[in-house]
Write the structure tokens for this entry.
Amino acid sequence: MKGQGIVYIVGAGPGDPGLLTVRAWRILRRADVVFYDRLVSPGVLRRAAPEARRICVEKRDSVVDLSDLVSQMAREAQAGRVVVRLKGGDPFVFGRGAEEAEALVRAGVPCEVVPGVTSAVAVPAAAGIPVTHRGMARGFVVETAHRAGGETPVLATIPPEAGLTRVFLMVVATLETVVGQLLAQGYDPTTPAAVIEWGTTPAQRVWVAPLERIAPEARAGGVEAPAVLIVGPVVQLRGRLRVRPVRRRARA
């Protein structure tokens, strides 16, 4: 008879399986059931135990209702199974991980959060862009460009002279809106900007342009989710810093 089950809310990292934490990899190898988001990379999913059931809980335009998802995970854990809720990046960085953890605790289900490498830092780094640099950026701010129900995102008001790199996650649907709000905040139209699609993976693509041109450049290239927008002088370092080359593969 199996013992008491547990739900692990695990950060899958930015996409490259090599950026999984050791703890995340070990837990995946023990998993009986893996509930995963659509954008978790296949390479990460392959690290789960071969016999583990894999259940996608996100479609292109919708996600499973929170209460339904928690009920499913609770049933599996109460049956004595090791349940992994696999979320891209870090589960507490715009990943709804906190809400899921709270709901599991309220339901009396044993739950542990396993942090992951956030795409807010790893994706720019993989493209040769540091989010901080002495003399260029004294810090950075991470924001989500996505709002539930398709609402227009409202950015934090941060003046350009603050010297902070701006990083926006889930930016594809609202790219023009984000750029427009930054320009309205007083950002110079020539501020360096970059859009990175599928960062850290073999499908990675990067567009670099002045802020006023970054949206049309990325759209012309057919940018798709997941993508990150980085705005600030640090983008100038793209191409100067040596990063591990990403093995390319043909796009479907």
User: Anything to note?
Assistant: The first strand starts at residue 6 and ends at 11. Residues 88 and 202 are 16 Å apart (CA to CA). The domain at 119-237 is CATH 3.30.950.10 (Methyltransferase, Cobalt-precorrin-4 Transmethylase; Domain 2). The chain has two domains: 6-114, 119-237.
